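REQUEST ID: PR-0412
SUBMITTED BY: lab tech R.K.
PRIORITY: routine
TASK: structure prediction, single protein chain
INPUT:
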Amino acid sequence: MRQPLVAGNWKMNGSLESITRLLDGIKAGMADVKRAEVAVCAPAIYLPAVQQQLQGSSVGWGAQDVSAEPSGAYTGEIATSMLGEFGCRYVIVGHSERRAYHAESDELVARKFAAARAAGLVPILCVGETLAEREQGITESVVARQLDAVIDLEGAAALANGVVAYEPVWAIGTGETATPEQAQEVHAFIRQRIAGHDAAVAEGLRILYGGSMKPGNAQELIAKPDIDGGLIGGASLDAADFLGICTAAN
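STATUS: complete
OUTPUT:
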């Protein structure tokens, strides 16, 4: 049985003071989290503080992005080796905001996935469609294209060392949420497409929902057979809300 994963994505939010309070609150409530693995993905500049505060706890941590290059003249970029020095387990690659605001192509995202995996990190590969793409009825072709970029570069077996997060772009930060049935439909498609390459990898792959999951809808979403947790944005900035999602997996 796949262990649920609930990963917080703080995006470009927080301060040293606020993340200290947030992590204290999360750690205090972890005794009630019986089943899910829990992690937070912080802005890179706060990773040393996150490591210091979470070391020895049951909460993991990671980064929101990473370079596809190992080192060199890439001003402003952060290498996988640097994340490793601060104890990161996870790193998000291909978030819709990186694809949209930084023009990251499917090929670049695949290279980031490969770099993270080669360094022993667990990449959380984000895939998903915009509102326009959903209205055109091309959700599956968009998600397939994004998955195939990784499979073509690394092979389907590489996904055994990663996580996939389905994020309907139209449901991020808008207050909209895909219905559990809509989310399950795409999650099932993702698993089926990977099963076409490697059934065992598909069966073991954790696929997270990343579209405005909240304490009020988390249990119904996670109860679906192909939804294995959540990549949480806004709700991860509030300890009570984040823990509410984590305990929904119980």
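NOTES: The first helix runs from residue 16 to 29.
REVIEWED BY: pending
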